[in-house]
Structures are given as C-alpha cells and as structure tokens.
Description:
The complex is a heterodimer.
Chain A: H1 5-15, H2 22-26, H3 30-41, H4 44-60, H5 71-90, H6 92-105, H7 112-121, H8 123-126, H9 132-143, H10 148-155, H11 159-180, H12 184-187
Chain B: H1 3-14, H2 20-32, H3 34-57, H4 64-80, H5 91-118, E1 142-148, E2 155-161, E3 166-170
Antiparallel strand pairs in B: 1-2, 2-3
Amino acid sequence: MRMNETEKELIAMVLSGCVEAFEPLVTPYRGPLLALASRLTGDREEALDVVQEALLRAYRSLRTFDATRPFRNWLFQIAANEARDRGRRRGRERVAFKDVVDRAAAPDGPEAGHDRRELRANIMSSLAALSPREREVFVLRDLEELDVRETSRVLGCSSLSVRVHLSAARRKLREVLRRDLPHPEDRR
Amino acid sequence: MMCRRVRKLIPLAAGDDLRPGDGARFLAHIERCPACRKELEAFGADLAGIRAAARDEGVADWSEGEWRAVVARVAAEAKRSAPGRGASPSPERRLSWAVAATAGALFGLVIMGVLIKGTPLRRPVSSGPTIAAGPSRPEQDRVTITMVSPESGLQVVWILDKNFDWKGDHE
C-alpha cells in the first residue's frame, strides 16, 4: 500500500501550517487505528487514549515521516509504540485480559456451551493467551494484514523475530480455540 | 527436510510467511508427505477461520463526539507548536531554564573574577635588558661561572660583569 497523492498533498499542507488538513489526513485511519489499539490493549477506553496520543505524536513528528512508506503503517507504528509504552508504564496488559483468562480456565458448567460460542466469536478475548509481542505481531500481520517486513518495521525488530513470534502466536491461538471450541472434524 | 522441521514451519507456511529459502524445500516435502500436507491444510483452515472471525468481530468505531474531541486536541496542540518541531516548552519550564542560565552566567563571572584577581601582575622594573628582575631582588651586575675538576676537586671561578666582560677569577 503506497501513499497516495492526496495524502502527500495533505501532509505538505499540514507542514506548511494548515492545521485543518490534519483531520482529513488521518480520518481514513481512525477505525483501523482504534481496532489496532483495542486489540493491543484489550480495553476500548485505553485504546481511545492510545489513539489520541498517537495522533498527537504523529502531528508533532510529521516532518520526520518517510514518504516512501505507507502513511497507515507509520500511524500503526506510533500507535503500537504508544500502546506498548502504556502497557509497560501501568502494567495493565495482564489486568486487561485477566477476566478473559479466568473465563477460559473456569470449569464447564451448564452455560459452558453458550460461553464457548461467545468465546468463538470473540477473537480479541483469545489474544489473552499471547505474550505482548506475540499479540502485536499477530494483530499486525494477520488482522491488519501487514507483511512480515512491514510488521518488523512497525515493531522495530527483525523479520526473524517477527516470524518466531508469529509462529508461536498462531500455534497458541489455534490451541486455545481448539480447546475451547473443538473443531467440527474432531468431534466426528 | 524432515517431518519434524516441516511441522515447525507449518504455522508460518499456513499464512504464506515462510522465508524464501525455506519455501521450495518445504513444498517439496509437502508434495510427498500426506500427513504433513493434511496438517498444513488443517492449520490453514483454522487460521483462515480466525482471520475471518476477527474481521466479522470488528471493533466499535469512534463516536463523533470522541473523534471531534481528539481532533480538537490536536488543533489546540497545533496552536502551541509547529508540526515536526516538537511541543514548545511550558512557561514554567522556560522560566526554570532562564533562571538556570542566569545562575550559570553569574557563577562564571565570579570564577573569572577570582582567577584574574589571584594572578600577580608582572610589571617591568626597567626598560633595559636585565638578567633578573623584581622588586625584592637587587639588580644583578655580576655573573660567576664555577668549574670543578672531578679528579682533583680544584675549583675555578670566573667573574663576569653584566655585559659579560671578564672581571677576574679565583681558585
């Protein structure tokens, strides 16, 4: 995904002092940014804060943006960094997903079948099984559909590291979903 | 490539994320190993299901109020600083920097004053060429050169005036 001409023009306008051009520049990404932040933090309110701070950072450092990269990925990079910083500062990553983990570990009751169906539809809850880095890699590669190289750029790590964490993330998620939601073929 | 190695690569292969170097050997093994092929297909189906479910799940979008609040905050930030130059320092921060700079300048001036005051001024005693100078020393008008023989211990002293004219000697 290359940066389009409109984005280039809007960036030039913002850099020349036209603040109003910033909103149309980032509006196309408001949904994807919120989705990314929500999946990384596990909490919508925190995700709103993450995106707000990320947009402010993007505005402040717009002059450093490398125009050869997709603008969306640059915004993702800032948002992922902000989410990670907040997670480290507050230690909330574990808290945010704690109830999900507890649910997954709870013994089966009469409502277990219903709970399982809910969990099946809720991929975000299943992300609780992943480490923060695995979650970042999985969300960027599999849900936001960045390729391995761009994922590594966004996260500031090597492609090898992305592949290692991506492999682990997919394996773990598959295990979680299979444990909680037996595959139709397995039940035959 | 052995089955064990192929099984490790299946999570990546299912998403078409193998390294280029691994792809050909992986595919060659999959072609001839039905068990690994089945495992790859099953993993691929599960991954596709996860991705599809994530797309269906979605995340609640911003309310217009939330979005307007963010945009307003960026606009407010813009009034304080130009893009790319970072946020301008707060007034408190600017004041503290000014105080620190003033204190540093004062300290520097004091140190310079002490250094200058503590250094003795060297004033010339006379305008003509002299061998020694200074108010506490009498003007030197004689130079003596002493020579000692290491074998006999004999000492010879030459006496010269201030113009290096020979004035005599003694042993």
